[in-house]
Amino acid sequence: MTKDALLQEFKTRYQQEPEHIFFTPGRVNLIGEHIDYNGGKVMPCAITLGTYLVVSRNTEKKIRLQCINFPETADLQLQSSYTKTGKEWFNYPLGVIDEMLQRGYELSGLNMLFYGDLPIGAGVSSSASIEVCTGTAISQIFGLNIPGEEMAVLGKKVENEFIGMNCGIMDQFAVAMGRKDKAILLNCDTLEYEYLNFEIGDNILVLINSNKERKLTDSKYNERFAECGRALKLLKQVVKAENLCDISSEEFHKAKHVLNDAVLEKRALHVVTENERVSLSKDALLNGRLEEFGQLMYASHASLKELYEVSGIELDTIVEFSKSYPHCIGARMTGAGFGGCAIALVKKEYFNDYAEKIKPYYKERIGYEPGVFASEIGDGARAI
Fold first, then answer.
1. 171 labelled catalytic
2. Catalytic positions (predicted)?
3. What is the average pLDDT value for the chain, to the nearest integer?
4. Distance CA 73, CA 249 (A)
5. pLDDT tens digits, residue range 295-316?
6. Is 121 annotated as a binding residue?
7. 60-89 average pLDDT score
8. Residue 310 annotated as part of some ligand binding site
9. If residue 232 lies in a helix (H) or strand (E), which one and from where to where?
10. CB 253 within 8 Å of CB 286
11. Residue 260 within a domain
């Protein structure tokens, strides 16, 4: 949908001239999965698909939330606080508005129209994109000057407390702080970060949507969060650590007997080794060892499948095909799993061939085709 069409849609719906338009991207995580809430390092990047928000103030002290992608709308009186109701999409912006009010910011009525070109439920952070887009808009409209890092923390708080999803900081940070052609190496415990040049030579980053929708709060995400908490508590009896990711593989193997539980052992082993793979990946990327980076992607997927058990036949089929395809150097599921997306590094000139061949391969096994997109790395949240 073009920017002009979006502005026109706003005028049609609200009978008012739009004042501002904002954009916040989605993200993919190159490596470092399910370790953001375990105090580890992750390597996400913002993509060029995302959430658009057209907004104007109103004088009726009303919060009006509409979205081109969903039929549900909200028309609420501006009040001092809100609570989540049901599972509608507008709980995400409403949670941000509530958090702004709890912080003592004075807001006026707002007419808001959202539109997203991210595949919903595909694991590329449409919820974080909506949250950060709402926060960025409010910050700019009311002159609050909230910096990107703080906006990410605010979005995470909304996700954890308002929505009830025990996610880490990665998604909100990546969409708030993304930079064109850069990966972010983020320490999720300290929020220290650095930008890495994502130089992949004659390869292209491919996003493959399994088209199996996953609903995170209904999934086992919170269960994994709890399992990691239990494992950490037990390991702390014998290892000095604040987070699971503070523990090295060597320390883990010496201490794992205290877990006395095969499931907890698998979960913790994934977290510890995945955190180490992120450091190895940084080194491989910075020194142009792309084949090694690709192998680390495959190793990450195997760990998520076998130890963390968050993959599934759809994502495994994508990675299996990618492994057999001669011009692909690495692939893995990205995001929380249980459906959603995978990413692959494919030689640019073979992208069309890869897309053409994966579709029937996948359809034969799963029953429908995946979506295949060439993905570019873009900038974070901004007014446009």
1. yes
2. 171
3. 95
4. 49
5. 999 999 999 999 999 999 999 9
6. yes
7. 95
8. no
9. helix 221-235
10. no
11. yes
Type of residue found at 9: E
Task: For residue 5, give the amino acid letter.
Answer: A
pLDDT per position as a tens digit, 224-264? 999 999 999 999 999 999 999 999 999 999 999 999 999 99
Consult the annotation and say whether 221 binds a ligand: yes
Q: What is the largest CA-CA distance in the chain?
A: 67
SS (H, E, C) 298-352: HHHHHHHHHCCCCCCHHHHHHHHHHHHCCCEEEEEEECCCCCCEEEEEEEHHHHH
Is 86 labelled a binding residue?
no
Residue with tokens 């450091």: 279
Long-range contacts, 153-156 (Cβ 8 Å, 24+): 153/191, 154/96, 154/99, 155/96, 155/128, 155/131
What average pLDDT score do residues 89-99 get?
Answer: 97
Q: Is 124 annotated as a binding residue?
A: yes
Which of 146, 176, 197 delimits the end of a domain? 197
For the cut 50, the answer to whether the pLDDT of residue 217 exceeds it is no
**98, 117, 171, 202: which is the annotated catalytic residue?**
171
By residue range, what is the domain housing residue 290? 203-375
Whether 9 and 127 map to the same domain: the answer is yes
> Rounded to the nearest 5°, which phi and psi values hold at 45?
-145, 150
222 in the same domain as 97: no
Does the annotation flag 159 for ligand binding?
A: yes
When computed from its CA atoms, the radius of gyration of the chain, rounded to whole angstroms, is 21
Residues 171 and 211 in one domain: no
Residue 383, in any domain of the structure: no
Q: Residue written as tokens 């001092």?
A: 80
Same domain flag for 188 and 46 = yes
Cβ-proximal residues to 350 (8 Å cutoff; 6+ apart), any chain: 327
CATH of the domain at 161: 3.30.230.10
- Other Cβ atoms less than 10 A from the Cβ of 204: the count is 18
